């Protein structure tokens, strides 16, 4: 791959890159996170061979849980072949030599940035999130000393005031991603910058969810079957984004769609953000309204070519 | 001054002087995944990978596997009296993990209990603070037999609806202590139960209902 | 996501090949050697070692070469390498009083035991481009005359002041208490001075320079004097448990700056001078001085001063000083964000629609409001 990756081939580094001492430290933090759902456990995040903010937290968590028999899926923005997903998957292929996949159902460990797969996850899967700013209160109160106190006292008044001001001003809550949730009726938590469309998926999810923030040095977790409630008000209940059209390529409804601009004359289409989901549906013969459109077909074809491995 | 020169470094590059795990990297990973799985699904059980070397009594093989998986020089460990009285146990733990062994339960990151029926109250261990609840002790009860003792009903994170759990030996009024432990959530200790080959866990988040006999 | 900006392994591989080619530049020009970088770009090497938190001139030279001279990228390469190294323990504190001094100046005394030693410095040079360096002949042996080293000890200025009771004593520390290490334990606030100094020593030179400058312009003024700046070689010793005594591992070059600051005194303490401390790898005086000034600023609480300025704000300074963290997070904005952007796009479209609808329903509202105001 690149120069750094070539070094791994020389056998200089341990399985999954991290040394055992570091893995133990991360593993202990993960256990604490599981025992205190939604609480951000401080951990001595290491410098990784990719920049802070590019998934170092997720990578460290994945490296600490990954075993030689695991099958890893790596997604970014819902897709397996966006640049950083390719780069991070390559990192684990080189350093751990584990099997990787694009198929959600085949993976035992899924590392993600900004999306949760459309397919329902199972008890045998672990979902690892890359988190930029783990503190849901950070943009309301920049000081760690203060936000830590608020969590300790379960004092989330500030967050409710902010959401209420949104309603007063806009008639609805103007938060569309990284939408705060309350875990197990105790901790307010940032579900990472996934669109709020994905929030219902993390409630009572069968899979274990692990969240890693490398630069901010925090790990948190949601065990399987845990109550996760998106913050709202009785008269303004939480609701997710709705798309008025199905996926232009596979016809899927009730999935998160990305907008693709086809030309400079206002031509656009909406397609599944989860590329594996879309491909699987099309392979099963589902088609969307634009599947036959030449401009759309060109993009699809290009994609097919690039994902062929 | 802190130094770890005398501690064997098991980083996968150096060969330990005496094997703990046959495969230090992958056996530790497998044990961790077992512990993580039972911590995430309270009341369930998973098999542990054992060390190649039989640990000195009263340290059980399952307890040794957990120790090698989670302990190191960053984690002060408290031992109950039978373990503390065995020089061989202390030497084994120091050699394989480098963990400092201490006598104050409130300072311990981990506690190893070989005689659960006479163990000290859970409240004697570090309960964590409201601001840092993660700093509490993880208490490991060894020599457990699952499924024989009076069962309790579990509910909470990691449990779909409810689950039944039975383990022993435990001290008198143990389950009342576990109930109180859960009431002070997010503070409180986490419990790991080590059987002959299996492990189970009850994090502080689990709500316990005593089943009437 | 079906868009043309799909990465694909081929694209990444090719991008890195292109980078390697650009890094090398015109192949008719000889490639840089690590020796050349280490010898002739020693300030860059020192900065990369300091901010990369690893003392190794050859590796730093390699990092600079690989990073095409981008010093933050080079420091990042050093950090990523450092984190994989096994750790044997912590060294003994270095004794800068026993430094083999190459430069030592004091701004507070005209002369002092051990003397002023100007040493290699840009100070007092005319900043004129020296075109002789552009000539091929550069590299000839330059005759240098230096004064005979005075055969006397070179005590630190702060120790001289301390003898008279004018300088606050070194804080009494428990020598057995472990020194904090923010690479092993995540930083928690409030952070003690050991962790603050470690953070500053690894911190970005430009960030610390700007903060130090701000204290001179009234944002948390500390009235600093450069009590002493010394640069030279010190021994690094390691206490070997097996031997029962400390052994020398080698020598490193460091710059130490002791700022002397006025202190008016409080109800509890008599007026005295107070300390600000800076220590960095290599000859990086700008950073050592900045570090000492910021260190002093962050001591406001302990000295009973008011907090009013950014340089005094411990959480703010320590959370933003690390350029490896900063550059990663700033540059991560280059990563795709189209999922989040889509969510925002949807929201903005909806809010605009609502805005126009409202306006069209009540076209006279603005006029009415206008009249009411009048």
Topology diagram in text:
The complex is a heterotrimer of chains A (309), B (213) and C (374).
Chain A: H1 3-9, H2 20-35, E1 41-42, H3 56-65, E2 71-76, H4 83-95, E3 99-100, E4 109-113, E5 126-130, H5 144-153, H6 157-170, E6 181-183, E7 187-189, H7 199-202, E8 208-213, E9 218-222, E10 228-230, E11 257-261, E12 268-272, H8 275-283, H9 294-307
Parallel strand pairs in A: 2-3, 2-4, 4-5, 5-8
Antiparallel strand pairs in A: 1-9, 6-7, 6-10, 8-9, 11-12
Chain B: H1 24-40, E1 46-47, H2 61-70, E2 77-79, H3 81-84, H4 87-97, E3 101-102, E4 110-113, E5 138-141, E6 145-146, E7 152-155, E8 163-165, E9 167-168, H5 174-183, E10 190-194, E11 198-202, E12 207-210
Parallel strand pairs in B: 2-3, 2-4, 4-5, 5-10
Antiparallel strand pairs in B: 1-11, 6-9, 7-8, 7-12, 10-11
Helix pairs in contact in B: 1-2
Chain C: H1 9-24, H2 34-40, H3 42-52, H4 57-66, H5 71-82, E1 100-105, H6 157-163, H7 193-202, H8 205-216, E2 224-240, E3 245-263, E4 272-281, H9 285-297, H10 314-320, H11 323-331, H12 338-361, H13 365-373
Helix pairs in contact in C: 2-4, 3-4, 3-5, 4-5, 7-9, 8-9
pLDDT averaged over residues of chain A = 90
Approximate helicity band of chain A: 25-40%
What distance lies between the first and last C-alpha atoms of chain C, to the nearest angstrom? Answer: 55 Å
Low-pLDDT windows of residues of chain C: 1-5
Strand content of chain C: 5-15%
Total number of strands of chain A: 12
Structural class of the helix and strand makeup of chain A?
alpha/beta
